[in-house]
Design a protein that fits this description.
Helix content is 21%, strand content 26%. The protein contains eight helices and 15 strands.
Amino acid sequence: MGVYLSTPKTEKLSEDGENDKLKFGLSSMQGWRASMEDAHSALLDLDKDTSFFGVFDGHGGKVVAKFCAKYLHREVMKSEGYSVGELGTALNKAFFRMDEMMRGQRGWRELQSLGDKVNQFTGMIEGLIWSPKGSHSNDQHDDWAFEEGPHSDFSGPTCGCTACVAILRNSQLVVANAGDSRCVISRNGQAYNLSRDHKPELEAERERILKAGGYIQMGRVNGTINLSRAIGDMEFKQNKFLTPDKQMLTANPDINTVELCDDDDFLVLACDGIWDCMSSQQLVDFIHEHINTESSLSAVCEKVLDRCLAPSTLGGEGCDNMTMILVQFKKPIYHGNDASSGEQSAVEDKNANAGEQSAAEDKNASAGRQSPGVIEGL
């Protein structure tokens, strides 16, 4: 069958939800790809004050994306940082924890359970779009105890995924990203990128890759993967003399903290199947055009997916799996008592290498423009 199908799978998995602070809609579509390797999380009420959204774009297989969609938010909640309001710290720890949990006998067993084999009891087939439901987000406590078994020396999966996650707690928004999925906020109709696409040619990424003993060929780490950060892909994380954040490929996320205001319209998280076809501002404009005329936010997402789907596989763009989450803020923004508001950092102090991104249409070009803790230059 090859990489692409002869006819795209345009069936969509869509979902909507809302509480007193926000509403969301999402949609996923396999498209031209031979299998669906995207996964997502949409947990409106992670706790009484907190919502969690994430997109995970798999490569080389779907199991790592599905693993992250199932477990990443649980590890965030287990973190001491989460309980004291240090959401960025909790997210950082949870990203690295994914790699740790996928090793050994227990990791092997969990990945097998999320694998591609047909489940004869439930009739679930390969390529089924998968995401956890909020009602099951806090299953019985599991300390992930070490297991003995024939796969105790399993070093982790060779496939991997990007991860772009947003946590909203009252008026605080914290975004964590590893890879080239992207989070964008619309403020008064202007698109601001809250994440940076991690590509090997970025100076800081290139420096880390080379120091770790890797090389870059045709824009790919060791000539293989066109990302410089991802969860999984353990073959690129085997240098025993380096910490996880110094490996040639790392799960280390960029963290961006934003204080929301009443000028903020909505938030978008999407995999690169969307961003390959539309710039950040083009997508924001498209959403503004349809958000008040469609029956639901998921219907807006579905229109975006249809807009991006290529008519054939000749061009490449518009042929990827597509996943998009749209989060709309209810006004006025509820500020509450944000214990971690001190995490808010000035734009000029954050993500110094962001200007290396090359897509001109995505640049927030006005040097004097105030931005919401944003990464410029995407």
